[in-house]
């Protein structure tokens, strides 16, 4: 099941650009639906799992990040890092001209590297999830697949042809590398919990930044439908 999920993640990056119905203004209702599913996953799965991780940290007599709310602090760092990267990339595009092409290329590779690490982390935690049940894997696969679809659309809009030529292949390879690392490299439990919290904060930012900007002209009803459908799937399984 994990291998099938990894292949699905890769196929989304490799072939999502061929789904021309996603390239629409107002925003494609399918992208808004996918964003709704991702938001539902955050609130129904990520937040409760973060609470469990925080309980684990609190129950251990350890000086490792000995803060009162370590999990949420790490999640805040994840959100802040990706917000900073997003502002950097957008600032580079707003100042783009022929004289600054080198800067634009630097911004592209920085953006791509950050999402390659992000994808590798998602694939790594596919192996080391808090919820190791089959249904938990299914929900993770659904939510992250749709999340990758939304991210891929955003990256294609940002970087155009250079993303089609290089970006999608690198991000797909990062998924495979992250999964293989998860299979063969077991980190300390505290580190895995910290990575999960960092990922949770990153997902929150990356979901909302794709849905909230006014120029996206997102659709509320498909977004709400995505939330409703995923919530029903979770509570009825």
From TrEMBL:
<feature type="transmembrane region" description="Helical">
    <location>
        <begin position="6"/>
        <end position="23"/>
    </location>
</feature>
<feature type="transmembrane region" description="Helical">
    <location>
        <begin position="220"/>
        <end position="236"/>
    </location>
</feature>
<protein>
    <recommendedName>
        <fullName>ZIP Zinc transporter</fullName>
    </recommendedName>
</protein>
<keyword id="KW-0812">Transmembrane</keyword>
<keyword id="KW-0472">Membrane</keyword>
<feature type="transmembrane region" description="Helical">
    <location>
        <begin position="30"/>
        <end position="47"/>
    </location>
</feature>
<feature type="transmembrane region" description="Helical">
    <location>
        <begin position="133"/>
        <end position="153"/>
    </location>
</feature>
<feature type="transmembrane region" description="Helical">
    <location>
        <begin position="106"/>
        <end position="127"/>
    </location>
</feature>
<feature type="transmembrane region" description="Helical">
    <location>
        <begin position="191"/>
        <end position="208"/>
    </location>
</feature>
<feature type="transmembrane region" description="Helical">
    <location>
        <begin position="67"/>
        <end position="85"/>
    </location>
</feature>
<keyword id="KW-1133">Transmembrane helix</keyword>
<feature type="transmembrane region" description="Helical">
    <location>
        <begin position="165"/>
        <end position="185"/>
    </location>
</feature>
């Amino acid at each position: 099941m994990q291998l099938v999920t990894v292949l699905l993640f890769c196929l989304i990056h490799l072939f999502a650009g061929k789904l021309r119905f996603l390239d629409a203004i107002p925003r494609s209702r399918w992208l808004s639906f996918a964003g709704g599913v991702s938001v539902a996953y955050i609130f129904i799965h990520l937040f409760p799992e973060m609470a469990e991780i925080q309980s684990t940290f609190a129950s251990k007599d350890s000086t490792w990040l000995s803060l009162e709310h370590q999990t949420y602090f790490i999640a805040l760092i994840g959100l802040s890092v990706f917000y900073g990267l997003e502002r950097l990339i957008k600032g580079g595009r707003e100042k783009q001209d022929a004289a600054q092409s080198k800067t634009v290329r630097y911004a592209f590779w920085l953006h791509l590297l950050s999402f390659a690490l992000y994808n590798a982390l998602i694939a790594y935690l596919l192996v080391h999830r808090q919820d190791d049940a089959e249904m938990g894997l299914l929900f993770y696969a659904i939510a992250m697949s749709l999340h990758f679809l939304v991210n891929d659309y955003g990256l294609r809009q940002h970087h155009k042809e250079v993303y089609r030529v290089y970006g999608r292949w690198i991000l797909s390879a990062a998924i495979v590398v992250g999964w293989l690392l998860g299979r063969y490299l077991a980190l300390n439990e505290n580190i895995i919990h910290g990575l999960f919290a960092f990922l949770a904060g990153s997902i929150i930012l990356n979901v909302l930044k794709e849905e909230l900007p006014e120029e996206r002209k997102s659709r509320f009803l498909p977004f709400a439908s995505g939330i409703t459908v995923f919530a029903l799937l979770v509570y009825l399984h």
